Q: What sequence folds into this?
């Protein structure tokens, strides 16, 4: 019995059947699968199943059975940090390892997914898209580095196990974890998801414990405000020689009561205190600087003020003066002058009995009773001064 062609293992179908590298030579109407998402460094090509299904050799009848006979896989890679500068090689390393693993095991991969998103909360867009394609029947298996790449929360983990129960997912492959679609395999998978969630929850508690200890020592676990900088070696907050004196000068100037928010913003820009883009600080940022207790030796954490161990910039007395000046001059309101309405409060309406009052309008002004239903013009009021006054209809 002759051995089946190499396309049966899902490897190097191009070399076996001699198809060109460009998918443009295959008519779009004959393609069985849509284009897949390309990873970094991948060449633009169609899934291997397109070339197998459109093979021109004499074994078409045999090869056309391959897409139905083989389990199709999605590769899924994820890193927790959304910052591009952190965990730079994580996605690339996972893709490389999983591609090698798929080649060794002869797995038929139809699409690759990767994203930079934490899995401790549900709502990952790429992950949900992948499971949506599995529900449609595009693939029946997932290839990932470890179960914790798929889920670290109970919602996503339960969704994967439910798809295994309903037969939408027939197999899961991990280079570092064993799984079979059996009661024992599903139990071990749920244990792996629970362990991943426990790791995240335990890590959070340890971090919060460290933050509480730093607060007891008077250290702020956050980015230093303007005028200070975070010391990476000692992990403390120290005065910045370039901006410390400038911020102090602006705070003392605002405490005199001669500056508004806009005025102190211009002064900060004149002394070189600017934002990240080199433009003047936003008014919200200026107001935050003026109300930040960090500058007099304290800091605020979760609504409570704690004593800090850093060097204060101003005294508490000067900080209180700044708050008084902020209320008085921080956001000035335009005050209107007296309206100088005449004949108010001495006459009443003969019908309703309400006193005659006045108000100012853009187009029409006049006198009216306090009931506000009928307007009394000035000419009518002047002509009826001697007699009883009625609201004009």
A:
């Amino acid at each position: 019995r002759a051995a089946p062609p190499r396309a049966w293992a899902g490897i190097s179908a191009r070399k076996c059947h001699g198809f060109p590298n460009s998918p443009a030579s295959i008519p779009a109407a004959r393609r069985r699968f849509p284009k897949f998402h390309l990873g970094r460094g991948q060449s633009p090509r169609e899934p291997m199943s397109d070339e197998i299904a459109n093979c021109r050799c004499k074994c078409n009848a045999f090869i056309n059975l391959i897409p139905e006979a083989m389990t199709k896989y999605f590769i899924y890679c994820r890193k927790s940090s959304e910052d591009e500068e952190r965990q730079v090689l994580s996605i690339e390393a996972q893709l490389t390892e999983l591609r090698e693993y798929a080649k060794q095991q002869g797995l038929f991969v139809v699409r690759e997914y990767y994203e930079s998103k934490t899995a401790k909360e549900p709502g990952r867009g790429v992950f949900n898209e992948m499971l949506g394609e599995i529900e449609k029947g595009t693939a029946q298996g997932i290839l990932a580095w470890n179960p914790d790449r798929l889920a670290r929360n109970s919602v996503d983990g339960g969704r994967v196990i439910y798809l295994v129960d309903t037969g939408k997912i027939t197999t899961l492959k991990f280079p570092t974890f064993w799984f079979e679609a059996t009661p024992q395999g599903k139990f071990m998978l749920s244990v792996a998801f629970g362990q991943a969630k426990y790791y995240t929850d335990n890590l959070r508690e340890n971090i919060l414990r460290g933050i509480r200890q730093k607060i007891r020592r008077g250290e702020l676990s956050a980015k230093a405000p303007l005028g200070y900088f975070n010391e990476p070696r000692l992990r403390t907050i120290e005065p910045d020689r370039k901006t410390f004196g400038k911020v102090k000068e602006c705070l003392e100037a605002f405490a005199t009561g001669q500056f508004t928010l806009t005025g102190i913003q211009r002064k900060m820009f004149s002394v070189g205190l600017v934002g990240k883009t080199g433009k003047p600080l936003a008014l919200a940022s200026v107001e935050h600087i003026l109300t930040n207790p960090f500058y007099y030796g304290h800091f605020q954490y979760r609504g409570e003020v704690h004593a800090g161990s850093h060097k204060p910039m101003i005294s508490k007395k000067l900080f209180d003066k700044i708050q008084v000046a902020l209320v008085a001059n921080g956001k000035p309101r335009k005050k209107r002058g007296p309206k100088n309405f005449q004949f108010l409060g001495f006459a009443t309406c003969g019908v309703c009995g309400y006193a005659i009052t006045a108000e100012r309008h853009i187009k029409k002004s006049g006198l009216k009773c306090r009931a506000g239903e009928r307007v009394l013009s000035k000419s009518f009021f002047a002509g009826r001064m001697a007699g009883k006054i009625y609201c004009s209809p």
Summary: Confidence is low (pLDDT under 50) at residues 1-56, 58-66, 372-393. The first strand starts at residue 72 and ends at 79. The radius of gyration is 37 Å. Residues 183-216 form the longest helix (34 residues).
